[in-house]
Amino acid sequence: MRTHSRFHTLLAGLSLVASLSACGGPAYVRGSDNPDLDKAVMSTGLDKMDLEQLFKDNIKSLLGSAAVTRWKDAAKDGKEATVAIFQVKNDTSEHIDDQLNALLADFETELVNSGTVTVISHERQMQLVQELKYQQSAVFDQDKAAQLGRQLGAGYFVTGKMSSSDEKTDGERRVQYMLYMQVIEVETGAIRWQNKATLTKGLIK
Question: Which residue has the higher pLDDT, 14 or 134?
């Protein structure tokens, strides 16, 4: 009897959800069921798709750059370059450090799969930063970053910075996000590649 009662209770609950959805009430949906869900802009803040696009623009630029051509030529001569990827500095008000680190792992994967360089583990880099008792900001100081690169055995390091520009007027808002990334040669300090990817989001009347 109890099983029968529970079945009817469950059935009633499902019917209620269905009727709410049919009447325009709230309903949970999956992105796989509604492809436009991931594309919907919920705010002027950075979301997953924004960050992915900014990183994709930068990795595309890097893989087509003279720096990568140089690495490919060196690899043919048996002198594969070694690259360390440092954290991207977040100069925005967005709480996106975890997302940036996750996307750096994707950036790392793209370089590894390119077959042109040896990439030093991002986790190993952070361990070394802790061992040397550097503050996080030291990773973004070019001289100290070069020192870290040498201690990691890297010939090059990739670094970057996320910044934003916010404009408001008459109830409207426009925010431009910029992801700068560059490759620096450890031995000389020369910038071998640099790119700025931009993305704008807005709230209009």
Answer: 134
